[in-house]
Design goal:
By secondary structure, the chain is α/β, with parallel strands linked by helices. It is built from 14 helices and 22 strands. The chain is globular, with a radius of gyration of 23 Å. The site of nicotinamide-adenine-dinucleotide (NAD) has 27 residues, from helix 8 and helix 9.
Length: about 500
């Protein structure tokens, strides 16, 4: 880290609240335990945060339950303006928030700035949705009943988020929850909690009342989320993370029949037909693969390239990948930061070794550098066998496996040969084929001649093992609303 950035990051983090936010107060964990947050570029501790447990969790959910009645009755315009003020504050502090994020998570500052703006946009988007919560009124078929439907907040929500987008994943849930009038208990990832603390501070400054947002971080997620789920006080779970943890939480949600929104893992196919604009396709693959160092649920995990252009595509992709500057994300010019930790690094190494043992050719990268920090170089593998382990697991690293295909039918079959269905990407100049193949790929989102689908105005989410529900877009707020139907007998005048 450059000395200037290191000093600034140190001061910013030292000024943050690092305890638990319960009922409007920042408090120590009951146990007094603390846990370290580590900078993945240096392997050094950058903060010590309160390590919550069961008792803290119960106090938090009780606070959220107490706050629900009044918060649910707050005028929509008031909720809207809190979100709008929070948007302004986040954008005013974009540079500071980006530095905190890079220091705890590793992504280059340029990307961190982008994530801050992306996160802020969810606050702005839902500030606009808060005052547009509609309902409808119809008549029964026999004309005898007025059917009046209104929308009410679901109630206290459990929010659980991953480490890979430390600010945006929280904002994508907190924005609609506030807009809908729900209170929250929020457990950010223990690996990257600082961005969430900063967001909670901003929301408080923007006027969010005590108890509406409670934040508990922990080294033992089950000891906090478990009590929330079994408390009977929470009405909804909104989770972003791995499918394995999501499945466990779905089982827990069954006990009290909670509403759920599940944003889970992905295994995105990135398909390039031989009629594609290859410059565009390579540029799109760089975005779909390398955003967040490949640590994204939307990351291109399997790159299918039609035989006629496979060699040229791999060579051009390797040129671009090999030219990327790897290093501490706070340093000028760095384009690829470290991975989040040793387990992530070991997994990437194992997946690459497995692919090579099945015949893959390393075009660029493939060797872990000998330096502190969890770094792995941008890597392109050609001639990857579809039987390789990396085609059925999330790589979550900067490794681009190129798999050759011949026909449209074959590639659709390979793209769908996975339990996941979050996102897919497709490059072709043939408009008809673009629609045809997009419709045939089993995913919740499809990028046609683009490597980026994330957009606060669009519904984000997957099918199959990638989850349930959608975040963002016009439907994002629906996940936090219940429909109430009022039946009124209808008699006519005279
Ligand atoms: P993870 O499932 O390990 O952790 C996610 C969250 O769940 C963290 O806050 C963690 O502390 C918590 N958690 C872990 N075990 C728990 C338990 N037993 N009970 C309750 N909570 C528990 O995932 P991760 O490694 O943080 O994130 C990477 C995963 O997230 C990948 O699978 C990625 O695809 C997925 N992801 C999905 C989306 C999406 O929108 N679909 C976005 C980002 C990441």
């Amino acid at each position: 880290m450059t000395t200037g950035h290191a000093a600034k990051a140190h001061d910013l983090i030292a000024a943050l609240h690092t305890d638990l936010l319960i009922d409007g107060a920042w408090v120590e964990a009951e146990s007094g335990r603390r846990l370290d947050v580590v900078n993945p570029a240096t392997e050094q501790s950058i903060a010590s945060i309160a390590d919550g447990g069961e008792k803290d969790a119960l106090r938090a959910i009780e606070a959220a339950a107490r706050a629900q009645r009044d918060w649910g009755r707050t005028p929509p315009r008031e909720r809207s303006e809190i979100l709008r003020r929070a948007y302004d504050l986040v954008m005013a502090r974009q540079e500071d928030l980006a530095l905190i994020m890079t220091t705890e998570m590793g992504k280059p500052l340029r990307e961190a700035r982008g994530e801050v703006a992306y996160a802020a946009e969810f606050l702005r988007w839902f500030s606009e949705e808060a005052v547009r919560i509609g309902g409808d009124a119809t008549m029964s078929g026999d004309g005898g009943t007025r059917i009046i439907c209104t929308r009410e907040p679901v109630g206290p929500c459990v929010l659980v988020t991953p480490w890979n987008f430390p600010l945006a994943m929280g904002a994508r849930k907190i924005g609609p929850a506030i807009a809908a009038g729900c209170t929250m208990v929020f457990k950010p990832s223990e690996l990257t909690p600082l961005s969430s603390f900063a967001l909670a501070e901003i929301l408080t400054e923007a006027g969010l009342p005590a108890g509406v947002l409670n934040v508990v971080c922990t080294s033992d997620p089950g000891s906090v989320v478990g009590p929330w789920m079994s408390s009977g006080l929470a009405r909804k779970l909104t989770f972003t993370g791995s499918t394995a943890v999501g499945v466990k939480l779905l089982e827990q949600a069954a006990e009290h029949v909670m509403r759920t929104s599940m944003e889970l893992g992905g295994n995105a196919p990135f398909i390039v037909f031989d009629d594609a604009d290859l410059d565009d396709a390579v540029a799109g693959a760089m975005v779909a693969k390398m955003r967040n160092m490949g640590e994204a649920c939307t990351a291109a995990n399997r790159i299918f390239v039609q035989r006629g252009v496979a060699e040229e595509f791999s060579t051009r992709l390797a040129e671009r990948m090999g030219a990327l500057v790897v290093g501490d994300g706070t340093e000028d010019g760095v384009e690829v930061g470290p991975l989040v930790g040793t387990p992530a690094l070991d997994k990437v190494e194992e997946l690459v070794a497995d692919a090579i043992s099945r015949g893959a050719r390393v075009v660029v990268g493939g060797e872990r550098p000998d330096r502190p920090g969890y770094f792995y170089p941008p890597t392109v593998l050609a001639d990857v066998s579809p039987a390789s382990a990396l085609t059925s697991q999330e790589i979550f690293g900067p490794v681009a496996p190129v798999i050759t295909f011949d026909t449209e039918e074959e590639v659709v079959q390979m793209a769908n040969d996975t339990a996941w269905g979050l996102v897919g990407y497709l490059y072709t100049r043939d408009v008809e084929r673009g629609f045809r193949v997009s419709e045939a790929v089993e995913v919740g989102m499809m990028g046609l001649n683009t490597g980026l689908v994330s957009n606060p105005a669009a519904p984000f989410g997957g099918v199959k093992a990638s989850g349930l529900g959608r975040e963002g877009g016009r439907v994002g707020i629906e996940e936090f609303l219940e429909i109430k139907y009022l039946a009124v007998p209808r008699r006519t005048v005279g």
